[in-house]
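Changelog-linked ticket: heme C example.
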Amino acid sequence: MRKIVVTLTVITSVLIACSPKSSKSSAAPQAAAEAIKGSAKAGATIIKSEKCTKCHKDKSGYVPKHTFEEQEKVILGMAKRAKLSEQETADLIAFVKANAKK
Ligand code: HEC
């Protein structure tokens, strides 16, 4: 009996590990955004795009004036306001990381 249970457990975990990842379009919690690889180049486009400039002027000049730690919260909050996807948020974060004050 124990052997059967162990075997079933192994099979189940293999099946779970191999099943395709669930929907990408869900809301973007910070942890999920960090698990996705962001592109700084794509992020540079986003920060200058209408997604961000519909409320205020292009804020890309703000990024190099502050360290990443100083602006992380603001940027994540803005990503929510702009309703960025997880991928877009990861791109924006990659851009900020690459260009923040060192
Ligand atoms: C729904 C409106 C809205 C959207 C969309 C939005 N912002 Fe903002 N953002 C604001 C407001 C309001 C402020 C505070 C006033 C200001 O600085 O203009 C602000 C402030 C900021 C600041 C701080 C600037 C400072 O001088 O202190 C940054 C940086 C910023 N936004 C970046 C972004 C980025 C990047 C995006 C796109 C992902 C974005 N925002 C999208 C409304 C928005």
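Closing comment: Example verified and attached. Residues 24-99 form one domain. The helical segments are 2-18, 30-35, 40-47, 50-53, 68-81, 86-99.
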